[in-house]
């Protein structure tokens, strides 16, 4: 695909994680900014989310945060962002994050990250969008996810062609080639149906 203007990053809100994950969030934020790619994310300043946003801003990048009103106090909105949207619900947040992005990158994270990742995967499966989804498998963190999807496919719950809904890379350094190798989206965005 041609260089994306905006990329949505899903990642954990926890800080109680290994340094390798924090370093990946930092490298990704800086790498996106250096390439002139706008970061779209959940708007918090905690955990990997905060590290990603800080690194992108420090490298002169643009960062758009989208946070629901009711979790502003939990995830503490980042006040230095290029744009911060405070929205009415998780659903509005997730739809806006998809609408405003040309591709999705998944760093290690918890239940929220998994929820967001499966939502963009299933929306792509339903052809509601056709934007690339790249899973950054830092230290093999997402190996169980890949195993689960393979198991679903072997058992007949997932069509073999749907294994191609996402691409897995081993590190942030591999993200850029992986994005460049993605085909242009074949399905026009169906904003009204998300
Ligand atoms: P986590 O991976 O649990 O640390 O969460 C990362 C981000 O996902 C946070 O900004 C959460 O608010 C967000 N998130 C999105 N959807 C959900 C959901 N259904 N449940 C929990 N968190 C969610």
Structure report:
- With 194 residues, the chain is an alpha/beta fold.
- The chain has seven helices and seven strands.
- Strands 4-3-2-1-5-6-7 form a seven-stranded parallel beta sheet, sandwiched between helices.
- The longest helix has 16 residues, at 19-34.
- It is globular.
- The chain starts with 5 loop residues before the first strand and ends in a 13-residue tail after the last helix.
- The structure holds adenosine monophosphate.
- Adenosine monophosphate is lined by residues 12-14, 42, 44, 71, 75, 90, 109-113, 115-116.
Shape: globular
- Order of SSEs, N→C? EHEHEHEHEHEHEH
Strand content: 15-25%
Give the strand tally. Answer: 7
Average pLDDT, all residues: 94
Q: Whole-number radius of gyration?
A: 16 Å
Ligand names: adenosine monophosphate
Oligomer description:
single chain
Q: What percent of the residues sit in helical stretches (DSSP H or I)?
A: 25-40%
- N-to-C CA distance: 23 Å
Helix-strand category: alpha/beta
Discrete helix count: 7
Strand order of the largest sheet: 4-3-2-1-5-6-7
Largest sheet: 7 strands, parallel
Unreliable spans are none
Features:
binds adenosine monophosphate; alpha/beta
List the helices and strands and how they pair.
Layout: E1 6-10, H1 19-34, E2 38-41, H2 47-58, E3 63-68, H3 72-75, E4 83-87, H4 90-99, E5 103-106, H5 111-125, E6 133-136, H6 143-154, E7 167-169, H7 175-181
Parallel strand pairs: 1-2, 1-5, 2-3, 3-4, 5-6, 6-7
The structure holds adenosine monophosphate.
């Amino acid at each position: 695909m041609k260089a994306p203007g905006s990329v949505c990053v899903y990642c954990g809100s926890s800080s109680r994680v290994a340094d390798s994950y924090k370093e990946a969030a930092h490298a990704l934020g800086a790498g996106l900014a250096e390439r002139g790619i706008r970061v779209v994310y959940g708007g918090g300043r905690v955990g990997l989310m905060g590290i990603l946003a800080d690194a992108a801003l420090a490298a002169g990048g643009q960062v758009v945060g989208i946070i629901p009103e009711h979790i502003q106090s939990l995830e503490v909105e980042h006040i230095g962002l290029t744009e911060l949207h405070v929205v009415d619900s998780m659903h509005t947040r997730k739809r806006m994050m998809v609408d405003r992005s040309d591709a999705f990158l998944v760093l290690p994270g918890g239940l929220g990250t998994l929820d967001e990742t499966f939502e963009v995967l299933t929306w792509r499966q339903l052809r509601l969008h056709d934007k690339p989804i790249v899973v950054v498998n830092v230290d093999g963190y997402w190996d169980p996810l890949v195993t689960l999807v393979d198991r679903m496919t072997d058992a007949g719950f997932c069509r073999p062609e749907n294994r191609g809904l996402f691409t897995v890379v081993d590190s942030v350094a591999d993200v850029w080639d992986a994005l460049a190798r993605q085909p242009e989206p074949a399905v026009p965005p169906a904003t009204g149906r998300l």
